[in-house]
Every structure is written in C-alpha cells, then in structure tokens.
Design brief:
Elements: H1 8-19, H2 25-28, E1 31-35, E2 38-42, E3 47-49, E4 51-55, E5 61-70, E6 76-83, E7 87-89, E8 102-104, E9 118-120, E10 129-138, E11 141-152, E12 156-161, E13 174-184, E14 189-192, E15 197-204, E16 211-219, E17 229-235, E18 243-248, E19 253-260, E20 272-281, E21 286-291, E22 300-303, E23 306-309, E24 319-325, E25 330-336, H3 349-409
Parallel strand pairs: 2-11
Antiparallel strand pairs: 1-4, 3-9, 5-6, 5-10, 6-7, 8-9, 10-11, 12-13, 13-16, 14-17, 15-16, 17-18, 19-20, 20-23, 21-24, 22-23, 24-25
C-alpha cells in the first residue's frame, strides 16, 4: 500500500483540478455513483464504504478517485486517492495513527475501475463521520455520492439491588435497585417496569468514545416494595431486541401492625386475648403492650405478641396499644374494648335438642295423617266408579225378570 509522500502531492493536485472540472449536461447521464447511505461498524472491527461506478455508456474512463471525510467542523479532507496507473495514496494526517489502515478493496492499477469501495480497518470513535466518494472521468466529468459511517459499541449490562441503610426518621425515596449499561456507543437507554422515579446518569466508558449509563430506581421503603420483582429494560442500537434484567427488591421498613381477637363480644367474667400482627424488615427487636391511659389493667398480661386477659372486668374497658420495634423504626396499632354486662341468654343444648325432636315428630305425624286421608279418598273414588258402571245393567235385569213372572202367571 502506497503512503503519502511518494506521489501524494501530485495526486492531490490532480484531484482538485478534476473535481473542479464542470461536467456538461449531457455527460451527467453517462454514469452514476452508487453508495450505501448508512454503513454501521463496531468499534475495533472493520467496515467497508461502498462506492461503485454504474455506467450508462461504455466510453467512460476513470481518471481519479478521491475519498473525503468531513471533520467535526464540517470541512472535508482527503483520506484516500486512487490513480488508474499509479494506484492508491493515503495522505498523511496527524489524526490517523500508523496502525489505522485505509484500503481500496477492489481497485487495482492498470485495470478498469468499477468498484472503488474503501475499507476502514480497526474502527475508532473518530471514524464516525460523513464520507464522500468522488469519481472523475474523461470525457464525462466527475460525480460524487456520500455515505455516513456509524461506529457502534455493544454495551455490557447488569442489574442488582442496592443496599438500603435507613434511620428511624427516614421517609424519603431512596435507591433500591441499580441498572448499568457499560461501554456502549451511543449511550444505552434504560427504563424500569415500575412507575417510579429513576435517576439516570452517563460517564465515559472503558474505551475511548464509549459511554456507561447508570439508572438508580428510587422508592419510599414499605412492605409493598419489599420482595417486589422489577425489570430493567436496556435498549441500544446494536441490539436486535431490548435486554430485560429482573431483580427482586430487598427493602427495610418499619413494622406495620394490626390487632385481632376482639369482635364486640367481651363480657364480664370471661377470659379473652388479643394478638398483635406485624410485617417488617428486618425482624422486630421488641414488643410492648400498654393503653391510652398508661399501664395495662391488673387482669391483663402481655406475652410477646399476645395479650391475655384472665378475667374481663371494668378496667378492661379501655384502648389497648401494641408497639412493635425493629432496627428501622416503630409501628403501632390500637384496639378499643367495650365490655358488656352479660352475654345474651340463649337456649340450652338439651332444650334445643328437644325442640328439634318435637319438630321431626310433628312432621312425621302430619305426613302420616295426610297419607291416610289421601288413601281413603282414593278408595272412595274407586268405589264410586264401580257403582256407576254397574247401575244400568241391574235395572235391565230386574225388568226382564218381572216380565217373565207375569207371563207365567197369566191363564
């Protein structure tokens, strides 16, 4: 591969002269320059910028090919030149180190120039730019077409929970999970499945021209958050589909407390109990029972989460409070007790059984009477039917008998 300094200046001068040569209107249709509008390549790998000559006429002779790159300021600069007889030249540029190579992939000196594609070896972030392929011909002038080289870097992604350290006074949103997309170009986009605030930030990645995106999911710690499964979605131009990363949240929160055991059914002289229920992370360190008036009544005894009342009396007519404490804070619940004088009088089991037996007997007796009445009615109907069917026959027999007797007694 020829480098700048051998015949580079002469080729550059010739290139400028040919590119400034105005083509005639009839010559424009003689050939076309075919390029790809967008070419993607990955950092450190190779990319090929397509440039092919599409001929409409056969008398087209290529005199010079020049590839130009547009710098960040928008100024074009020649990066590769090909002469039909002298071959390729790559102008020296301080921004292009020696290990970076440009190469015409198909053009050869002394051959017909139809494929003027340019390979860019070892892509860097600085290679991302607009490139223009200029083709000068004789006698049909010159034409050019541009392509955009997009340099990508596929990021590495991870999601994990964040350790949450809370004091009893903390009630503000805190980071509970972290999602990181490292070394991407362009920066990755991160979102969460949970509708909550996320703090996103970017910083340079491990390689020049790459970015690391970090997203912190922030929530107010509670039992609804602890143990919840959330998904971090990472989107990037180099992915065929988004990357989904799931984490299960572990969030400390103060105890959430409730009391059971009372249903407006406490009566004087009975034994009763209340139970304190809780949800917390971490586990509670202490339980405490008292009342709105202070200490517990004499008949009430606290045993951890249980409150035992050996004998309900007037002193139990109060509001009991259960306090549960863990490393994060304290939660409480209240239960007001209204003691009743005596339970409503109900039927004894013996009387209730007797009533049930009498009811069953009554049903049986009434059923038997109904069956007997129905049977008698049925028999009576049958008898009446038989009598009605025999009546006319007996009358005819009586008439005949009388007639016979009369005839026998006549002289």
């Amino acid at each position: 591969m020829a480098r700048a300094g051998t015949f580079g200046p002469s080729l550059l001068l010739l290139s400028l002269l040919l590119l400034s040569w105005p083509p005639a209107g009839a010559e424009i249709a003689a050939f076309q320059v075919e390029v790809q509008p967008l070419v993607r390549g990955f950092l450190g790998e190779d990319a090929t910028l397509l440039c092919k000559l599409q001929l409409q006429e056969h008398d087209v002779r290529v005199t010079l090919v020049t590839w130009q790159q547009q710098d960040p300021a928008g100024v074009p600069r020649s990066v590769a030149v090909f002469h039909p007889t002298q071959g390729a030249s790559y102008p020296a540029d301080p921004s292009f180190p020696e290990h970076r190579k440009l190469e015409f992939v198909a053009a050869r000196p002394g051959e017909k120039l139809r494929d003027l594609s340019l390979a860019v070896r070892g892509l860097r972030a600085e290679d991302e730019a607009n490139y223009t392929c200029h083709i000068a011909t004789f006698p049909h002038g010159s034409k050019s077409a541009s392509t955009w080289l997009r340099v990508l870097a596929k990021p590495q992604n991870k999601a994990e929970t964040q350790e949450v350290l809370l004091s009893p006074l903390d009630q503000e949103p805190v980071p509970v999970a972290c999602c990181v997309s490292m070394g991407g170009r362009p920066p990755a986009r991160i979102s969460w499945s949970l509708d909550a605030k996320a703090n996103n930030s970017q910083e340079p990645g491990p390689l020049p021209g790459t970015f690391t995106t970090t997203s912190l999911l922030t929530l107010i710690p509670s039992s609804q958050v602890d143990g919840k499964n959330v998904t971090c979605t990472v989107e990037h131009e180099s992915f065929e589909k988004p990357v989904l990363l799931s984490v299960t949240l572990t969030v400390p929160y103060p105890p959430e407390v409730s009391i059971s055991g009372y249903k407006d059914n406490w009566y004087l002289g009975r034994s009763e109990a209340l139970k304190c229920h809780f949800r917390s992370n971490p586990e509670p360190t202490s339980y405490d029972w008292n009342t709105t008036l202070g200490p517990l009544p004499p008949s009430a005894v606290a045993q951890g989460t249980n409150l035992l009342v050996h004998s309900v009396d007037k002193s139990v007519n109060t509001t009991f409070i259960c306090h549960v404490t863990n490393a994060v804070g304290t939660g409480k619940a209240e239960q007001t007790i209204l003691v009743k004088e005596e339970p409503p009088k109900g039927l004894s089991p013996g009387i209730l059984a007797l009533i049930i037996i009498l009811a069953v007997v009554s049903v049986v007796v009434v059923g038997a009477m109904l069956c007997k009445w129905w049977y008698k009615r049925f028999r009576q109907n049958q008898h009446n039917s038989v009598a009605n069917s025999r009546g006319p026959v007996m009358e005819r027999m009586d008439v005949s008998y009388s007639t016979v007797n009369c005839e026998a007694s006549s002289p």
